[in-house]
Specification:
The protein has 415 residues and is of the alpha+beta class. The protein is built from 16 helices and 13 strands. The chain is elongated. The structure holds zinc ion.
Length: 415
């Protein structure tokens, strides 16, 4: 087999790339320098817009791109960066089969860097490939921008979830919009206010008329804008948030009971009680037999907390019922909660009454929490991997790459 054929396969080049020369530069890490040229075509393409364009000049001469490593060696692709005269963009470097426009890395190398930055973090990717953190960051931005230019994520939306995500301590939030149909994030921006939601509807334009369902957490900064900008859409209250309210009410009851025990001087009982906090938050279905026994024992030890736990569990169960049964069960639940003498649940019953139409729409149309929940979990993982984000735009870029499906597949995977 000819060496050039081996080399071509190893570097992942297809018929569109011609290898002219190869050289190894010795060093602590050997460098494989591969001189190439694109296969000649009658007309070139503009590197900026991709349109056909006629030849202009040889540009600034030879350029080089870091390519996928070959074993111990790093690989450098070297070629003349010819220019074309694009009607739309003017004289521009011609599109090359191995690299994105304006990058010192090959496309395949960038795809791997982005892949590593998503599953790990940018610092880990920088270390792995021996490039700077800034270079990793720029690559993520370049890849995300290119992908966003190609697809319109806001096209054909009929059901969306609008939610907020924390990006930094001190009440710094992003607003994130997910598509209920695909489960993907389709839009994200800094801030959580009526203005932020307004920006989403600005981007959506007349397509807002096609929106049939919007799920949200009941915050008026979302629902008010939706009522104004998409008046025909049914607003559903995300079940995830309603159950979250109940969990919070349960926590308040537990804390009040714990304080009572402490003030009564029952230190040991108070300590045991404090340990219940995380157990109570979990779903009954996910508890082990031993954990269930702890909660059963509560019925005798602290009836008020036990009742609060039951109320939380029953509310969660209602969301799994068909609408007619759910309506009846919700009536019963509201009556029971209102008479429970547990102040946080009396208040919760009032809140739920005021959102009742939205809650019933959620049950009827089955727009469950799954999407918001799984996206929030993944977004939380991105934030944790990066050990937080100072720049909201950098966070948005990573969210879009990972959760909007913009991240490129691995270079050797056929698209
Ligand atoms: Zn152009």
């Amino acid at each position: 087999m000819r060496v050039s054929k081996v080399l071509k396969a190893m570097l992942g080049f297809g018929r569109e790339v011609v290898i002219l020369a190869v050289e190894v530069v010795e060093g602590t890490r050997p460098r494989l320098v591969v001189e190439v040229r694109p296969k000649r075509r009658r007309r070139g393409r503009c590197g900026r817009c991709g349109g056909f364009a006629s030849w202009f000049d040889n540009g600034d001469g030879v350029r080089s791109w870091r390519h996928l490593d070959a074993g111990f060696a790093t690989v450098e692709v070297v070629a003349l960066a010819r220019r074309v005269d694009c009607r739309a963009c003017g004289p521009t470097v011609a599109a090359l089969p191995w690299a994105r426009h304006d990058s010192a890395f090959s496309r395949a190398f960038e795809d791997l860097v982005v892949h590593d930055a998503i599953i790990g973090n940018k610092a880990a990717a920088a270390h792995r490939y021996g490039i700077s953190w800034r270079a990793v960051n720029n690559t993520c931005v370049r890849v995300a921008t290119e992908a966003l230019d190609r697809v319109d994520l806001l096209d054909g939306l009929v059901a969306v979830a609008i939610d907020e995500v924390k990006y930094k301590k001190g009440h710094k939030y992003l607003t994130v919009v997910c598509d209920h149909v695909t489960g993907k994030v389709v839009w994200a921006a800094k801030g959580r206010s009526k203005d932020t939601v307004g920006e989403f509807f600005d981007a959506l334009g007349s397509r807002a008329g096609q929106l049939e369902f919007v799920t949200a957490d009941g915050a008026t900064w979302i629902t008010d804008v939706v009522a104004l900008r998409a008046p025909d859409a049914t607003v559903c209250l995300d079940t995830f948030h309603v159950i979250g309210w109940a969990t919070k009410a349960l926590d308040e009851v537990r804390r009040a009971e714990w304080n009572k025990l402490r003030q009564a001087g029952a230190a040991k009982a108070a300590k045991e009680f404090k340990g219940l906090r995380f157990l109570l938050r979990r779903n009954w279905a996910n508890l082990t037999m031993g954990q269930r026994e702890v909660i059963w024992a509560l019925e005798a030890a602290n009836r008020r907390t036990f009742r609060a736990f039951q109320l939380k569990e029953e509310l969660a169960d209602i969301f799994a019922l068909p609408l007619i049964q759910a309506r009846r069960a919700l009536d019963d639940w509201l009556a029971y909660a209102s008479r429970s003498k547990l102040a946080p649940f009396v208040k919760l019953a009032r809140t739920i009454r005021s959102y009742r139409a939205s809650i019933e729409a959620t049950i009827e149309w089955r727009l469950t929490n799954g999407i918001a929940e799984s996206n929030n979990a993944s977004i939380g993982r991105i934030r944790a991997n990066a050990r937080g984000f100072h720049d909201p735009q950098a966070f948005i870029t990573m969210i879009m790459l990972d959760r909007a499906g913009l991240a490129p597949s691995l270079p050797w995977t056929a698209e």
